[in-house]
Amino acid sequence: MKATVEELTQVKRMITIEVPAETVDKARKTTIEKIGKEAKIPGFRKGKIPENIVMQRFGNEVISECMKQVIRDTYPSAVMEVKINPLGPPEIEPVGKLVFGKPFTYKAIVEIYPVVEVKSYEGIALEKEKVEVSKDEIESELKRLQQQMTQLEPSPEGELEKGMVAMIDFNGKAGGEIFPGSEAENYVVDFGTGALLKEFEVQIKGMKTNEERDIEFHYPKDYFRKEVAGKKGEFKVKVKEVRRKIVPELNDEFAKELGEYKSLKDVRAELKKRILEYKEGVVKRNLMDQAVRKLIDDNQSLEVPSQLVDAELGNMLEQLKRQYEMQGRKFDDSKIDPKQFVQANVKEATERARGYMIVSAIANKENISCTDEELDKRIELIAQSNKQPVSKVRQELEKNKMIDNLRSQMVFEKTVDMILGKAKIKERKAKKEKKTKKS
User: Fold this and answer.
1) Which of 141, 167, 218, 233 could make an SS bond with 241 (beta carbons 3.0 to 4.6 A apart)?
2) Which candidate, 428, 408, 427, 365, places its Cα nearest to that of 122?
3) Sign, Cα dihedral of 193, 194, 198, 200
4) What's the pLDDT score for residue 146?
């Protein structure tokens, strides 16, 4: 057997394999014996059918199976001979017909992992927002904690007003018609917080436990639900229970209730630290995304093997499934059109795969790796965040064959971190978020 290789593209190679007549005849004999053992022909015992009869009855099948056998017998050796490592199965192209007693030639087109020569990755220009924590952000978080510590005290004689919480039933119409959301049972109203439509809230003010009331109002013309905007609302409302909010004062005693804090000043300092850490994490992730995107844009000439793109499309589909599960929704594969999914995501999958190839090449060049100790620490962190035993998390990762993926992800992160350390990062002021009016 003789094998030669030709470079078609960065990632495609064509191996031409010339098979001697002896190998073809050996495959012919094996194929005829196999078909002869399984064939049923009247007048012949099973397994005792002469070769010429097998050829007469199953000639085309013999030739087809013989060709497959020749390829199975010779392809692995050919790959070793030309010293390449295909990423997946070959695309076979016979050169002429297979004829018994004569040599046979075929071509195998395969994809390989290309040699990745990354353009300069040192000193790349990036931008990040300046991380600051405002007093308003700290006070907002403090008020959130205050709300969490708020108690609800039964108030049988209490009237519905600011500082009260009620459980109500209601049903009604808008413009004389029932609409989605026009009725509810055990609906919780936190009066005066702006969570309820103002026009509705005005009409139920002062109601007590077990009181029923018919109310009328007009929905604002610019109401976000167009089907009821500007229409007259007519509702029957029953208050089932009224409770008074006992809101703790923001003082040093409140701080001590939250944990090992001596004063409210300590709580504010801790909140500032937490918000700062969160914002710094967001900025860091943004910088990493910028860096990888910059490398991708600078290396668009790098061809990506279709095998890697397909693998990334599979990862994206799995990610979509996990998102559904986290939302408590069922993911039905049958509702996903494979062609549409590929068309919608193939460009992004290609870019992601290109990014991984580039970062992996840099990691190899810089000898960046993930030690067993670093891997163990990451698994411990995953266990802590999921509130599960480390042994269980490790078992799940090993069961799903995700250990190597986790290690690769850590190498990826370490490599991008190294790139950020050598980048030219320009800091700019954070954009102020525009406040939106509540509907």
Assistant:
1) 167
2) 365
3) negative
4) 94
The tokens of 406 are what?
Answer: 């986790």
Q: Quickly count: other Cβ atoms within 10 Å of residue 72's Cβ.
A: 10
As a whole number, the mean pLDDT across the chain is 90
Token readout for 257 is 């209730």
Give the C-alpha separation, 205 to 210, whole Å: 14
Distance between CA atoms of 359 and 414, rounded to whole angstroms?
Answer: 10
Instruction: State in Å, rounded, how far the first CA of the chain is from the last one.
Output: 77
Q: Which of 297, 291, 335, 318 is closest to 423 using CA atoms?
A: 291
3-state secondary structure (DSSP) of residue 229: coil
Share of the chain above pLDDT 70, in %: 93
Collect the ranges in the chain with pLDDT lower than 50: 435-439
- Alpha carbon 46 to its chain's center: 56
What radius of gyration do the chain's Cα atoms show? Answer: 35
Q: At 69, list the tokens.
A: 């056998």
Q: Judge contact between 404 and 418, C-beta under 8 A.
A: no
Instruction: For the chain, list the domains and their CATH numbers.
Output: 2-111 (3.30.70.1050), 151-246 (3.10.50.40), 262-428 (1.10.4030.10)
Contact, 78 vs 23, CB < 8 A? Answer: no
